[in-house]
Amino acid sequence: MKSIYYICIMCLAVLQACGTTATKGETAETLTSYVEPRIGTAHCRWFHFTPGAMPFGMAKPGPSTNGHLGNASGWEATGYDYRENSIEGFPCLHEFQVGGIVLMPTTGKLITIPGLPTDSIKTGYRSHFDRANEVATAGYYSVLLDDYQIRAEVTATPRVAYQRFHFPKGVDNHLLFDIGNRQGESGAVADAFVSYTEDGRVEGWVITLPEYVKKYQPGAQVPLYFSAVLDKQPSSFGTFQGEKQQPGARELKGVGAGVYLTYDFPEAESVTAKIGLSYTSVENARLNLEAEAKDLSFDEAKEQAHRTWEEYLGRIRVETSKQEDKVKFYTGLYHALLGRGLANDVNGAYPKNDGSIGQLEMKDGKPVHNIYNTDAAWGAQWNLSQLWIMAYPEYISDYISSHLQAYEDAGWLADGLANNRYVSGVGTNLLPTIIAGAYECGIRDFDTKLAYEACLKNELDGENRPFGAGKVNTKEFVQYGYVPHADEGEGYHETFMFSASHTLEYSYSAWAVAQWAKQLGDTAHYNQLMYLSKGWERLYDPSVNFIRPKKKDGQFVDNFNPMQVWRGFQEGNAWQYTFYVPHDVQGLVGKVGADVFNARLDSIFTVSQKMIFSGGKEVGAFAGLQTLYNQGNQPCLHISWLFNEAGRPSLTQKWVRAILNEFYGTDGIHGYGYGQDEDQGQLGVWYVISSMGLFDVKGLTDSQPSFGLGAPLFDKITIQLNPKYYSGKEFVIQVKGNTPENGYVQQYRLNGKPLHEPHLPFASFAEGGVLEMEMGSQPKDLY
Fold it and tell me: Can you give the residue ranges of the Glycosyl hydrolase family domain (predicted)?
């Protein structure tokens, strides 16, 4: 399907679903009409496609085509695959390492197994569907299930999933609650319980064993709880476990447990389920349902979700005649606000790292901050944190407070958390770069004293460090000034196989915390951290002009191949990682030589463009690892912006635009590369900030942070500033002469005054104002 046609059909469907009539305080342009959640859903992660969710919500309902199959390692694609044409159910929870509570409507003979998406003959309750009969946008999804002629709809409040099913008339209409089976990234099920209560609720729980939890916090479990109310009473009910059915039974315990409700409708009728969710108890799931949805209908919840998404998306407004770029932009922005969702209840109860239930301090009937599930922060300093600081500072503050609560409870920062269980992901921990960046940009309404303590411990303490806290090489890094290499290892020891990339990451995060230490007058820690920040120099081999792994004895590894993946470099190679010195680009340029540096960079992109800046058209999360450059993974995301720091900003403008236009697509297969791993918004947000022409390779962690400036895709960009954090009302970027032929900035002016370098101090951004850019067809490197 052609992408423009795809967009037009989608936008029309969304406009029909959401309406375009302007209300008080709302412009006529409906931004959710540009959100296309199906972009990039071929080979996408479990948390990627959950269109029914609210921003940063707990309840994340959406369809699944293959979620019950799970995945082997916890990171593989599962859930909704654009290439498949049958739906097996509508899970209420789609989070990093968390999934479950599935509803599915059917008609006819009662079938209680899902079947396989590859079955040529129907064997389960899954139903075929046609994407022409789907509506997917921010906060709402609907689809016609062809096998049953049932229209299914989902939406949500923050902690309550809404599912509505329009049944045909008949005596065999069923609604399945599949609770006790694996879903997406949930891992295997340890136990489950489901009940159809005397007062008409469907309630229960499931205890899951996510693969990352098993790896990073062995013995820990992730429980999920729910309480659902329905607006129609069934004519009969029962339980099921696989194909075994027990008519009339009200409850069932054990792996595979489920409940079915059967309805007899003389005429076509709808059934609405409100499913309260919790990570602490069934009682709190009821409480969440009562607090958020007691008197709220499906249509009212849908409209509330729509208004909320419009407000969040509307904090950044872009203007262009290229509708396709708006679709890419607002879909990327949507993903930045979708993942890393709520984990605490309305009463402040939350799951603690040790499996017990914690209680947040309450103020005016609300928690003083929230707790969030979160994928690891690996690379987030080059996308999510910069966007959140710009337009969502209240969220990044809350996000940091959530991590600090985990630090108080467990004693260590942990950048990846599933219900506060450790899920480190890549075994490192760059969370201090996010915390330091927020602090340097003036976001300080979290416990900054505790945060500094936690960050210092993260950078310097390697004693008795749990595997799930990441950076388990910290002791050796502090001892040697670099991470010594080992070619083999398992568990904790596997991290030494990634010695060079860990050295580079630890060097950068040490530098970020060092800037904070200097401001606090903590000279001893500043000096120690600055020494460690030069760890990259200890691995730079001038004989080959690459970062090269080094052993304990101080010798570089032999048989070095800079294109080799996994030997010294996690999810990358020396070609890619040698540029991972964001805190000292000038130092790296000095070692390589400015001309060689820029020529190498330019040639890398020239070659990589033929591979669409990653793995070409190969569908796979790791398709681009063994290449010169990989836009599809975090370690490379700053590289195209390095020309700004090496005196050739025109090349940043050239290559960033090329990546924006070619790597990013608008359909299910070519969305974020071809089937790349979007990691809870990271690739989408790179598009958002880069297409605005604002990006800091240091992740805003400098003591006087600034944005590097590029060439925006849009004619005008308006960013609303949060008055609680920033003195300005809005920051506006105006681009004159912005055509495909005019790809180079000729002049920058801030509030009418020329800028003589391609950098914007963050302080100027926070004050609000107007940044003007004049575009031309010829590259220009001096302003």
Answer: 284-777
Distance CA 432, CA 219 (A): 27
| DSSP states along 176-233 | EEE-SS--TTS-EEEEEEEEE-TTS-EEEEEEEE-HHHHHHSTT--EEEEEEEEESS-
* pTM, rounded to two decimals: 0.96
Mean local confidence (pLDDT), 766-770: 98
Q: Compute the distance between CA of residue 115 and CA of residue 136 in angstroms, rounded to an integer.
A: 24
Helix (H, G, I), strand (E, B) or coil at 648: coil
CA distances 665 to 360, 659, 673, 682, 685, Å, are 42, 10, 7, 15, 14
Residue 5 in this model has a pLDDT that exceeds 50: no
Task: For residue 243, count other CB atoms closer than 10 A to its CB.
Answer: 10
Q: Look over the chain and give the mean of its residue pLDDT values, rounded to a whole number.
A: 95
Rg (the chain; Cα; Å):
26
Using CB atoms within 10 A of its CB, is residue 727 exposed (0-12), middle (13-18) or buried (19+)? exposed
Pick from 375, 367, 476, 461: which is nearest to 411 by CA? 461
- Spatial distance between the Cα atoms of 684 and 690, rounded to a whole number of angstroms: 10
Between CA 636 and CA 90 the distance in angstroms is 35
β-strand 127-128 against 188-196: which pairing, if any? unpaired
Structure tokens, 46: 């479990």
Residue 17 has a pLDDT of: 45
**Cβ-count burial of 145 within 10 angstroms (0-12 exposed, 13-18 middle, 19+ buried)?**
buried
Please state, as a whole number, how many other Cβ atoms lie within 10 Å of the Cβ of residue 462: 15
Q: Provide the token pair at 4.
A: 């423009």
Q: Are the CB atoms for 418 and 213 separated by under 8 Å?
A: yes
**Residues 6+ away with beta carbon under 8 Å from 461:** 474
* Distance between CA atoms of residues 124 and 243, nearest Å: 10
DSSP H/E element including 707: strand 706-709
SS3 call for 34: helix
Q: How confident is the model at residue 121 (pLDDT cuts 50, 70, 90)?
A: confident
In the structure encoding, which two tokens stand for residue 264, read together?
A: 């007899």
The burial of 178, by beta-carbon neighbours within 10 Å (0-12 exposed, 13-18 middle, 19 or more buried), is given as buried
- Encoded tokens for 591: 């070692």
Tell me how far apart the terminal alpha carbons of the chain are, to the nearest angstrom. 44
Residue from 584, 709, 588 nearest 650 by CA: 709
Other CB atoms within 10 Å distance of the CB of residue 424? 25
Residues 6+ apart with CB under 8 A from 363: none
Each as own residue / partner, the long-range contacts of residues 238-243 (CB below 8 Å, 24 or more positions apart, any chain) are 238/262, 239/194, 239/196, 240/112, 240/176, 241/180, 242/112, 242/113, 243/112, 243/113
Q: Which residues contact 593 (CB under 8 A, 6 or more apart)?
A: none
Run of H or E including 667 = none
Instruction: Name the strand (E) or helix (H) holding 635.
Output: none
Q: What is the 3-state secondary structure (H, E, C) of 311-376?
A: HHHCCEEEECCCHHHHHHHHHHHHHHCCCCCECCCCCCEEECCCCCEEECCEECCEECCCCECECC
How crowded is residue 783: how many other Cβ atoms within 10 Å of its Cβ?
A: 15
Which tokens belong to 105?
A: 């409507």
pLDDT at 553 over 90: yes
pLDDT tens digits for range 564-592: 999 999 999 999 999 999 999 999 999 99
3-state secondary structure of 457: helix
By the 8 A CB rule, do 46 and 375 touch? no
